[in-house]
Design brief:
The complex is a heterotrimer of chains A (about 775), B (about 140) and C (about 120).
Chain A: H1 2-21, H2 26-29, H3 32-49, E1 54-61, E2 66-72, H4 74-97, H5 104-123, H6 127-145, H7 152-183, H8 188-193, H9 195-200, H10 204-218, H11 227-230, H12 236-245, H13 249-262, H14 266-287, H15 293-314, H16 317-348, H17 364-378, H18 384-397, H19 403-425, H20 445-463, H21 469-479, H22 496-514, H23 519-525, H24 533-555, H25 560-580, H26 597-615, H27 619-639, H28 643-663, H29 676-702, H30 708-721, H31 726-734, H32 736-758
Antiparallel strand pairs in A: 1-2
Helix pairs in contact in A: 1-5, 3-4, 4-5, 4-12, 4-16, 4-20, 4-21, 5-6, 6-7, 7-10, 10-13, 12-16, 13-15, 14-15, 14-19, 15-16, 15-19, 16-17, 16-18, 16-20, 16-21, 17-19, 17-20, 18-19, 18-20, 18-22, 19-22, 25-29, 26-27, 27-28, 30-31, 31-32
Chain B: H1 4-27, H2 35-53, H3 55-62, H4 69-82, H5 109-135
Chain C: H1 2-20, H2 25-46, H3 71-102
């Protein structure tokens, strides 16, 4: 299983390798990756549907409880098959759709990476690996959305998608860690058992709040929905893949996955109902004001995601079942609609629904796919959409006191979506063929077979829903472990739900006849743009940027001494206040050792040379003073039992003086630039700092010292490391890795010096 | 600085100092000393020699460009650090040959680690000093 | 003695910072070196001063039999000294290079050289 997940990443990594000699082969080979995984998942089908989830575990960072645990249950299988199944079609479709593209090899790399991340996400049983894959989908989708990287608006929407989903991902990480902390495990399947514990924990509202933000940003729920229409800048196959089956469904998957762990409480249900409800109505209504086919699809996708969130919020058995079926239904018809949009765009060069019509004359199979998908989206009997709609209505209809409002809103949403589906799936193909599109011709089979195939599935499952019984049962059981046995059927008897269903169809058809997509409708929305979340978001971004600009301009002004001064003042004020406020220093004279005459002499020597270094005007003088300071230091080390340090200090001191002497005459003169006033100010500042350091040193010196670490090293120096010079043993054995890295630092310094001297960095010499 | 006394002294000082630096390196595990100090001593010995005889002369007796000592030293250190893998122990576990050898004393992975440090210190110090002297 | 050392540490820090605040690049380097010395001494002092008892185990015994100086700060300072040398030499060569190319040692002249070159 790990191979199935990783292979996508491997293939993505291999792209640069292949592209040098086998560029043209990539589009021919890569589609077999999702196909292969799809077939592999198919072989697991029978075992999983017998309610025996499959489990694979690989250690990753076991000490933190982070493992690559993969678990294939109904929900994971449903998503996995959608990801790889629709993936296969998209891979094939792209190989023709983007045939002319310069960077097609790169495109397949991104696509494989994205697919692998998505697959990892739905299969992960471990919260942390789930998060890693979650972020990988955000990152790889960034490349896919911004694929047309020479188009500024494409880059902008990619950045926005990454910004929103990345932000959500971070929030999600906080939520996941909190869950793991409260529930005592990072394994989702184990968390199901501690569900009650988490729900009664006081952090529960925080946990679900964080989780919701993660899921809502990914699944484009109001008010985070605005990145999704922008993401339509991507090539159509990408939109198909991201928005029908994968990326945006990740949020839904997350909510569904955590339903057995966190679901069933009032706050869970009502938040989801509210957010999902607002999103589905808002977006469905919005879709009617659009004229670009992909825009219509974008908003209807948001609306469909809203419906899913809403259903998960309702949370009854019917609702969960409806959500499960609707995931499949929506993926099938929405992918079809996206694919035919791509064909229309490819063949006619426009996506404006107002200027399209009559295309069925030139591309019959595509038109057929469009009709079928639109009908499934509308929920006409004999289509899968009908069955999912029935169960949806059934679930809201029996939901406590609020049944009427909830049912009314979902019916209204469905009416709008009916129209949106018809506009995309039917309108471009009926009516008169405009003159300018008369030359449009039948596309390659690689383009039209995928949508026709998917549309066919809509009908197949719609007519024989029994095929899905066992599958949906396991999907349902992943969300609600103790579920009833499901039987999907076309005919539910003559009841209110059927009446509502017919009402939806009637209203939808009337609205379709009455309302024509037009630019003027789009214009009517313009005044409200000011209040749209996307505007707010952009304004926040701009404010933030200008704030950061002025902040940086104030502190990073390019004068070294200003940096030093601001650090100094901050440090002195902070530490000084702490010292002033409740720290009293008393000296323990017993700890203080006596002063011997020789030591006193060294101290006097040192103080003199420090002052000499400060005031002397000659370079040689300073260097001599520095040498003496170093030697005095060395003597201190020698007096106080540090022979190793004394030796090292002595050698280094010698080397430093030699170094200075070598370059002395190429160094700038020891000049003074500042005025007297400035010197006094700096003197006062540095004196203040020196006093602070002294007081701190005194303070620390008076506090009892903890020497466990030193004692451990000293005790075990010979016993464990067979050395008697503890300092050396620490360096080469106990803390050997540190030493290794320190020698690397030394090497880097040497290479820096070497390259500074030997390479020609003088810009004037280049010409 | 090409005085005869200085030159004659340096001629004898170089081998002595080098020997001394090796001595410091080897005894480091038991008495004050070790790779860092040893390496610095050796570097100072070469620099002294170069002051007396000039850089060309020094390079001709060393033959090897000191730059190459840095990667070699790092490699020795790293190999010493990972050598316990060969016997299925974690990185940096000290491995020791049981009996002390003549002149050298106890031999173990830590000693090789220290030798690596020694070489890196010589290499980088000499690289710094030599490239400065060359560009004057 | 400790009090005198603390005084010297404070003095080294103050002198180092004062030199760092100068406009001359040469003084900046001096400040860096002084500060480095001060920090080494500070760490050394905080490990407590013990006279004449280096952290080296007696030839005869396998563990310490009497009080010894704290080896951890010593190990820290030892590498700090060596790395400090690397840093100093790099800084010296850097200002030498800057001085050669730009022919100024006034830090304020380096503030906006991007456009001039």
């Amino acid at each position: 299983m790990i191979f199935a997940v990783i292979s996508g990443f491997i293939l993505a990594a291999l792209v640069p390798l292949f592209s040098s000699f086998a560029r043209n082969l990539i589009p021919k080979i890569y589609p077999f990756l999702p196909l292969g995984i799809f077939i592999y998942l198919g072989t697991c089908f029978s075992q999983v549907t017998q309610n025996a989830p499959m489990h694979w575990s690989y250690n990753w960072v076991p000490s933190f409880g982070v493992n690559l645990d993969f678990r294939l249950d109904g929900l994971a299988l449903l998503f996995g098959m959608l990801i790889t199944g629709i993936g296969t079609l998209v891979f094939f479709y792209s190989s023709y759709y983007l045939k002319e593209d310069k960077y097609l090899d790169r495109f397949y790399g991104y696509l494989s990476m994205f697919m692998a991340a998505m697959l990892g996400l739905v299969l992960s049983d471990n919260l942390i690996s789930l998060f890693v894959f979650w972020e990988l989908t955000s990152i790889s989708s960034f490349f896919l959305i911004g694929y047309k990287n020479d188009d500024p608006s494409s880059r902008k929407s990619a950045l926005m998608a990454l910004g929103i989903t990345g932000f959500g991902g971070l929030v999600l990480l906080a939520g996941l860690i909190w869950i793991g902390f409260v529930g005592g495990s990072y394994s989702i399947i184990e968390l199901v058992n501690s569900s009650e514990l988490i729900k009664s924990h006081e952090a529960y509202p925080w946990i679900i709040g964080l989780l919701f933000i993660g899921a809502f940003t990914k699944s484009a729920q109001f008010p985070f929905h605005f990145w999704l229409p922008g993401a339509m800048k991507a090539p159509t196959p990408v939109s198909t893949y991201l928005h029908s089956a994968t990326m945006v469904k990740a949020g839904i998957y997350l909510l569904a996955r955590f339903t057995p762990v966190l679901g069933g409480t009032d706050s869970w249900n009502w938040t989801l109902i509210l957010v999902g409800g607002i999103t589905m109505l808002y977006a469905a209504a919005h879709s009617l004001f659009r004229t670009d086919l992909k825009s219509i699809l974008a908003y209807s996708t948001i609306s469909a995601l809203g419906i899913l969130v809403f259903l998960l919020g309702v949370g009854t058995e019917d609702a969960l079942l409806a959500a499960g079926i609707f995931i499949l239904t929506h993926a099938l018809y929405k992918a079809t609609l996206f694919l035919i949009t791509g064909i229309i765009d490819h063949e006619t060069g426009t996506r404006e629904v107002t200027s399209l019509g009559g295309l069925q004359k030139v591309m019959k199979p595509v038109a057929l796919a469009g009709y079928l998908a639109a009908l499934s989206s509308a929920g006409v009997p004999l289509f899968l959409g009908f069955i999912s709609k029935e169960i949806m209505y059934e679930s809201t209809f029996h939901f406590s006191n609020w049944a009427i409002i909830l049912t009314a809103s979902i019916v209204l949403t469905k009416v709008f979506l009916f129209v949106a589906g018809f506009w995309v799936g039917i309108k471009p193909f009926t009516g008169n063929l405009p003159q300018e599109h008369a030359k449009a011709k039948m596309p390659s089979p690689l383009l039209w077979i995928p949508p026709v195939f998917l549309a066919g599935l809509c009908v197949l499952f719609g007519v024989f829903p029994g095929i899905l019984d066992a599958f949906m049962q396991t999907v349902f059981n992943s969300m609600s472990p103790e579920g009833e046995v499901i039987h999907l059927a076309l005919w539910h008897g003559l009841n209110w739900v059927l009446v509502l269903s017919l009402l939806t169809l009637g209203l939808g058809f009337a609205l379709y006849k009455f309302l024509k997509p037009s630019q003027s409708l789009k214009g009517k929305l313009a005044p409200f743009d000011k209040f749209a979340p996307i505007e707010l978001m952009e304004r926040i971004g701009i404010t933030f940027q200008s704030f950061a600009g002025s902040w940086t301009g104030f502190f990073q002004n390019g004068y070294l001494r200003n940096y030093v001064i601001s650090i100094l003042i901050f440090l002195t004020v902070l530490a000084g206040y702490r010292l002033y406020d409740g720290v009293d220093i008393h000296l323990d004279w017993s700890q203080i050792s006596d002063i011997t005459p020789s030591e006193f002499l060294v101290v006097v020597l040192m103080v003199t040379s420090i002052f000499f270094a400060l005031i002397t005007k000659t370079r040689t003088g300073v260097i001599v003073a520095l040498g003496i300071i170093g030697l005095a230091n060395c003597l201190f080390f020698l007096y106080y039992s540090a022979p190793d340090l004394a030796m090292t200090q002595f050698s280094i001191d010698t080397l430093t003086v030699l170094l200075f002497m070598l370059v002395l005459f190429q160094l700038p003169k020891n000049r003074s630039f500042s005025t007297r006033k400035l010197r006094v100010r700096d003197g006062a500042l540095s004196l203040m700092f020196g006093v602070l350091i002294s007081i701190l040193a005194l303070e620390v010196f008076e506090a009892p010292s903890y020497t466990e670490v030193s004692e451990y090293y000293a005790e075990n120096a010979y016993l464990l490391a067979k050395g008697k010079n503890v300092v050396n043993v620490i360096l080469v054995d106990f803390r050997g890795i540190d030493t290794l890295v320190e020698t690397v630092v030394l090497v880097i310094a040497a290479m820096g010096v070497f390259s500074l001297l030997k390479l020609n960095l003088n810009p004037f010499n280049k010409e | 600085m090409k005085s005869i006394i200085f030159q004659t002294a340096s001629k004898y000082l170089l081998p002595l100092l080098l020997l001394f630096s090796v001595f410091i390196l080897l005894r480091g595990h038991y008495l004050p000393g070790g790779g860092f100090v040893g390496g610095l001593m050796a570097a100072i010995a070469f620099i002294l020699y170069s002051f007396a005889f000039g850089l060309k002369e020094t390079k001709s007796i060393v033959k090897l460009n000191p730059r190459y000592l840095m990667p070699v030293g790092l490699a020795v250190s790293i190999l010493a650090a990972v050598s316990p893998w060969l016997v299925n122990l974690p990185v940096m576990t000290g491995l020791w040959y049981d009996e002390p050898l003549k002149l050298i004393g106890m031999v173990g992975s830590s000693l090789f680690f220290d030798i690596g440090v020694y070489l890196v210190v010589i290499g980088s110090t000499l690289t710094i000093m030599f490239s400065i002297s060359e560009t004057i | 003695m400790e009090l005198l050392l603390i005084f010297i540490i404070g003095l080294l820090h103050a002198a180092g910072i004062y030199m760092l605040l100068r406009r001359s690049m040469f003084k900046m380097i001096i400040g860096l070196i002084l500060l480095g010395n001060g920090v080494n001494l500070l760490i050394f002092l905080l490990g407590r001063l013990v006279k004449g008892k280096p952290p080296v185990i007696d030839e005869a015994s396998k563990v310490f039999t009497e009080i010894y100086a704290d080896p951890v700060p010593q190990a820290l300072i030892l590498t700090a000294i060596v790395i400090g040398f690397g840093l100093q030499s790099f800084a010296i060569i850097l200002i030498k290079r800057v001085y050669k190319v730009l022919e100024t040692d006034d830090l304020d002249d380096l503030n906006s050289t991007d456009e001039e070159i």
